[in-house]
Amino acid sequence: MASSSTSVVQPTIERAQELGEALAEIRVRVRSAALPGATPTLVAVSKYKPPSDILACYEHEQYDFGENYVQELVDKAAGLPHEIRWHFIGTLQSNKAKILASIPNLYCIQTLASAKAASALDKAVPESRDTALRVLLQVNTSGEANKSGLLPLGEEVDVAASDLGQLAIHVVKKCPRLRLEGLMTIGSLEQSLSISETEKNADFEKLKETRGKLEEYLAKNHADSPWGHETSGNLVLSMGMSSDFEAALKAGSDIVRVGTGIFGERPKKAT
Ligand SMILES: *Cc1c(COP(=O)(O)O)cnc(C)c1O
């Protein structure tokens, strides 16, 4: 079935089976936690995992994959089927925009956080690409210093004066080759591990509130420009990882990013 075939090493039968089972289990959990009528996207986060693992999931019709490192993504994308939709979820540096945007099946950048990076990406999107490159703005909902992203929009905030609002306007008005599709957050792991099932996750609530404010502002002021999901027209939310994707889905997440839950533990990053 894989049309473009590839130089990628095939997974062993055991590994293919293990990944097939893990993926099936996560899909069941995603479906049962999703809100009625919702069909959330499961992004399989494959950083540090070999291309053969990705191919094994692809054989089970998993097409959305997330990667954190530009060179790793470039190398993997070159050897794997072009039907894959790659999501970039790592720290985005403006000087890497060109190489990232040159990946023909790059589907979405989930970690946009500066106008400089937005302009660099917009300039780098090749003419040959027939759709705008989707971007999500990263929001630091937990306020942790080790997390990237813009401040969420609180109750009283003036959207147009906030960093997040200004970046959204910059993308919508000044970056015709990008499409502002929504917002992404990581949130505090402690928060998601410490709360009970009936409590609300404050970080997910903050992302929802931010989306509500931004959507209201854009609908009022920039209704004539394209933004939001191509079919629903709404800003989508990417929130939820292995440890908290069910809570995120119950809170209304549209995209969950699951690594460990599918592929198992990652090697610790060398420092
Ligand atoms: C690594 C990573 C994930 C996946 O994390 P798991 O806990 O392994 O599911 C999701 N989102 C981002 C931004 C990541 O860097």
Which characteristics define this entry?
single chain; alpha/beta; TIM Barrel; 8-stranded parallel beta sheet; 10 helices; 8 strands; about 40% helix; globular; binds pyridoxal-5'-phosphate; PyrdxlP_homeostasis; pyridoxal phosphate
Beta strand %: 5-15%
Helix content: 25-40%
Briefly note the CATH topology name: TIM Barrel
The number of helical elements comes to 10
Q: What structural class do you assign from the helix and strand content?
A: alpha/beta
What is the number of strand segments?
8
Architecture, according to CATH? Alpha-Beta Barrel
pLDDT < 50 runs, ≥5 residues: none
What small-molecule ligands were found? pyridoxal-5'-phosphate
Protein name: Pyridoxal phosphate homeostasis protein
Pfam families: Ala_racemase_N
GO molecular function: pyridoxal phosphate binding
Domain Alanine racemase N-terminal: 39-267
Written account of the structure:
The protein is α/β, with parallel strands linked by helices. The protein has one domain: TIM Barrel, CATH 3.20.20. Helix content is 38%, strand content 15%. The chain contains ten helices and eight strands. It has helices at residues 13-33, 51-58, 70-79, 97-101, 115-124, 163-174, 189-194, 202-221, 245-250, 260-263, and strands spanning 41-45, 64-67, 85-88, 106-112, 133-138, 178-184, 236-238, 255-258. It has an eight-stranded parallel beta sheet with strand order 7-6-5-4-3-2-1-8. The protein binds pyridoxal-5'-phosphate (PLP). Pyridoxal-5'-phosphate binds at residues 45, 47, 68, 89, 186, 241-243, 257-261. The modification N6-(pyridoxal phosphate)lysine is found at residue 47.
